[in-house]
Amino acid sequence: MKRDYFSHDARPERRFGEHRSGTCMALIDGRFLIWMAQQGAMGATGETVNRQGLLGLLSQALSQSALDVDLKRIYWYSDRSDGLVIDDQIVRLVQAHDADGGASLLRSLGHDLKQLAEHHACDHVLVASDDERFLATIDEAQLSGVSVHLLADESARNMPQMVRTDPGWARLLAQADRRVVVNSQALAEMLQGKMPTGMGLAVEDVEELRKSMHEVITAWWADEPEDLREDLKEALMISRGIPQEVDRQLLLRMRHRLARALSLPEKKMLRETLRAVVSEPAAPALVGDGLPPDIED
Q1: pLDDT higher for 110 or 8?
Q2: Which residues of 203-239 are buried (b: 16+ CB within 10 A; e: fewer)?
Q3: Is the pLDDT score of 290 beyond 60?
Q4: 268 φ, ψ to 5°?
Q5: 20-191 maps to which CATH number?
Q6: Strand partners, 151
Q7: Domain limits of the chain?
Q8: What's the farthest any 2 CA atoms get from each other in the chain?
Q9: How far apart are CA 19 and CA 292, in angstroms?
Q10: How many CB atoms lie within 10 A of CB 255?
């Protein structure tokens, strides 16, 4: 009996704290992220961040929190326009915090979170804010089935200390499904207009990673029975996506190979490599004097 690569009936039991997958949206209070970046920059006073590195930064932080999610879009809430137009990022202009105490941000971000939850638009939402007034909105979104995670700096690793020093933010963080800790040095580099280190790879490192992916996929492909290979080829011809069963297998093998989870750009590279391997023509079988059977004398 052939395996249906698109069958989702087999759902392994999930234990708390394990890796989770799905789609994710990020709702980022620009003022709060800049504040965190300033802490990482040890007193730097910049007022803008390089949003071009934001998707990679957040994807890496999510991955390190055992959230192997597809970060589909970032909503950026700010009281000023930085003039950047970046794919998969939407800017929401709000009133300055000093003008209304954050009421405009509360309405805009809260409305978007409610809409995402009510329409089941994603499995996860990452929120970057320290405003305790979001507590009820986050709770409501969670009750509708969405996992809501809060972005934080390294101080969130010591919650007892935070309860004493910043009880309001501690209460907000305690409500989150997970606390996603972002690297403070990477934030500091974004504040200085740089692409954060560790979010990309040098050219030679990219090629080495691509080579490792090709080796892993080729070894897996060689072990697959012929009928399942044909099924996968057909599946990839009719769908732009990778069957979940195959995706999970290859992500797990690469995790074992690298001893870490892949970032979002690396996952995309893995899937591109899979398509390349699957589409490679099979070498013709040699018979007789070594010529392919269709041209042998």
Answers
A1: 110
A2: eeeeeebbeebeebbeeebeebeeeeeebbeebbeee
A3: no
A4: -65, -40
A5: 3.40.50.1010
A6: 180
A7: 20-191, 203-279
A8: 87
A9: 48
A10: 14
Mean pLDDT of the chain: 82
pLDDT surpassing 70 at residue 252: yes
- pTM for the model stands at 0.64
Query: Could you write out the three-class secondary structure of the chain?
Result: CCCCCCCCCCCCCCCCCCCEEEEEEEEEEHHHHHHHHHHHCCCCCCCCCCHHHHHHHHHHHHHHCCEEEEEEEEEEEECCCCCCCCCCEEEEECCCHHHHCCHHHHHHHHHHHHHHHHCCCCCEEEEECCCHHHHHHHHHHHHCCCEEEEEECHHHHCHHHHHHHCHHHHHHHHHCCCEEECCHHHHHHHHCCCCCCCCCCCHHHHHHHHHHHHHHHHHHHHHCCHHHHHHHHHHHHHCCCCCHHHHHHHHHHHHHHHCCCCCHHHHHHHHHHHHHHHHCCCCCCCECCCECCCCCC
Contact 163, 135 (CB under 8 A): no
What's the token pair of residue 23? 């789609």
d(CA 180, CA 151): 5
Strand partners, 183: none
Distance (Å, rounded) from C-alpha 127 to C-alpha 133?
A: 13
β partners of residue 126: 26, 149
- The answer to whether the beta carbons of residues 63 and 262 sit under 8 Å apart is yes
Distances in Å between the alpha carbon of 43 and those of 80, 184, 255? Answer: 22, 12, 37
What is the C-alpha separation between 252 and 79, in angstroms, rounded? 42
For residues 45-54, give the mean pLDDT.
75
- Which pLDDT belongs to residue 231? 84
Joined together, the tokens standing for residue 202 give 């040098």
Compute the average pLDDT of residues 121-127.
97
pLDDT, tens digit, 9 for 90 and up, residues 199-232: 444 444 677 888 889 999 999 988 888 888 888 8
Residue scoring higher pLDDT (180 or 43): 180
